[in-house]
DNA sequence: CCCCAGGCGTCCA
DNA sequence: TGGACGCATGGG
């Protein structure tokens, strides 16, 4: 009988395939915080344009962005989409960090205090909070996203309706209790979903863990005749 | 023309 | 508690 795929062997397979992930893409912790908000339901290429605009205007800095006009932020992050709501979310977050003691104090919080603080901000949900904790602040949290859930459900490790916390627990209980492992594993999941689910990619089919893992949801077979 | 992308809050049953 | 909906741009 076929051996069930498990998270741990998946991790080791991907680690030998990709090596160190080098994630998150971003030069500074602040850039990672901003990127985490901008990438909500948005293609990363569009986020890159927005971040480039912010960088060019020297707005990629905690104090500067906190004090910037909303209209300016809106215009710069436009390529990332949802620019009105994302501007509010960024401001909500920056103001919360400022009010609660500043950016240095924020980074000094322990994992659960930081996560709870972030979840208290309107516009910051579990994935964004964990992304900031893990990649901007180096806290040991595992990030769950749409790809992560898709992969588990495709392989019948979890159902499509599994909650964020349920999926997260599956990984936490299967992987070494280690920040770098958490960072790399989430990155690998994004890598395989991006690298192997697009027809234009010539390497499609070479996925070390199966070529279907990253493909978008199949269309619901409408009432077969 | 369509669907998709590293979500989230609000509204309503 | 949970499902539908709006938010918006750029690429395939």
Q: What share of residues is helical? A: 55-70%
Secondary structure: number of strands: 0
Percentage of residues in strands: under 5%
Using only C-alpha atoms, the radius of gyration works out to 19 Å
Structural class: mainly alpha
Low-confidence stretches: 219-225
Q: What is the rounded distance between the termini?
A: 35 Å
CATH architecture annotation name of the domain at 29-136 = Orthogonal Bundle
- Would you list the SSEs in sequence order as H and E? HHHHHHHHHHHH
Largest sheet: none
- Average predicted local confidence, pLDDT: 90
Q: Count of helical segments?
A: 12
So what's the CATH class of the domain at 29-136?
Answer: Mainly Alpha
State the CATH topology of the domain at 29-136. Answer: Endonuclease III, domain 1
Q: Which geometry do the CA atoms define?
A: globular
Which assembly state applies to the chains in this document? single chain
By CATH's scheme, which homologous superfamily of the domain at 29-136 applies?
Hypothetical protein, domain 2
């Amino acid at each position: 009988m076929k051996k069930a795929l498990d998270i741990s062997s998946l991790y080791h397979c991907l680690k030998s395939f990709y090596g160190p992930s080098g994630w998150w893409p971003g030069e500074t912790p602040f850039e990672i915080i901003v990127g985490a908000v901008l990438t909500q339901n948005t293609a990363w290429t569009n986020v890159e344009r927005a971040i480039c605009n912010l960088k060019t205007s020297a707005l990629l800095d905690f104090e500067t962005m906190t004090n910037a006009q909303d209209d300016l932020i809106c215009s710069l992050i436009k390529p990332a989409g949802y620019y009105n709501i994302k501007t509010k979310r960024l401001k909500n977050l920056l103001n919360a960090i400022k009010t609660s003691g500043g950016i240095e104090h924020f980074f000094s919080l322990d994992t659960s205090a930081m996560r709870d603080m972030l979840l208290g901000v309107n516009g910051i949900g579990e994935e964004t909070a964990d992304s900031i904790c893990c990649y901007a602040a180096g806290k040991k949290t595992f990030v769950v996203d749409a790809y992560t859930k898709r992969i588990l459900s495709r392989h019948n490790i979890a159902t499509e309706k599994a909650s964020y916390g349920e999926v997260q627990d599956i990984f936490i209980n299967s992987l070494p209790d280690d920040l770098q492992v958490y960072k790399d594993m989430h990155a690998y999941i994004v890598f395989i979903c991006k690298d192997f689910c697009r027809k234009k990619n010539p390497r499609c089919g070479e996925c070390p863990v199966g070529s279907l893992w990253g493909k978008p949801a199949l269309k619901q077979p409408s009432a077969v005749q």
